[in-house]
Design goal:
By secondary structure, this protein is mainly β. The protein is built from two helices and nine strands, in the order βαββαββββββ. The strands form two sheets. It has a seven-stranded antiparallel sheet with strand order 1-2-3-5-6-9-4, covered by helices on one side. Strands 7-8 form a two-stranded antiparallel sheet.
Amino acid sequence: MAETTLSGPSHQILENDYASEWMGIEVLAISDGHATIRMTLRQEMLNGFGMAHGGMIFAFGDTAFALACNPAVQAPGEENSITVASGVDINFLKPAFRGQVLTAVADRRSSAGRSGLYDIQIFATDAAPSPTGQPAQALPGPVQPNSVQPSSAQPGSAQPGELIAEFRGRSRTIPKK
């Protein structure tokens, strides 16, 4: 399936997702089993240490997970089912700070029957991206990119920043109520 770049609410699950709206999440790309999203860390998303609250990072990764699990356009016969998390693990690797732009890249690793396994990598950068996706003016505070690439990145492709968290999600498709 071809990847599509989107702007604004681009997936039916975001239409009434007030948490993702409050967080300012922007969908960059979505395709079958994949989603890339972005948001900027604001002051009210920080903990008492002045770094991103772990719950904000988790919620951000969870949105990417949900978008990768649920097709933007459901196939005939799938209208009465949804895919939800059956379990997740997150590893916080480095802190993120106010003004940094976070990017989450979610990819399906496996699916069998009603179950799936997804990896979501979360990156932070000080550079505010321009509409073309290229880094624009840098924000205060250095962040050095590391050598880890998103799990879906092709060799030689640009990283969306420094890897700050790894999120592994297990999904289950259930009947819609």
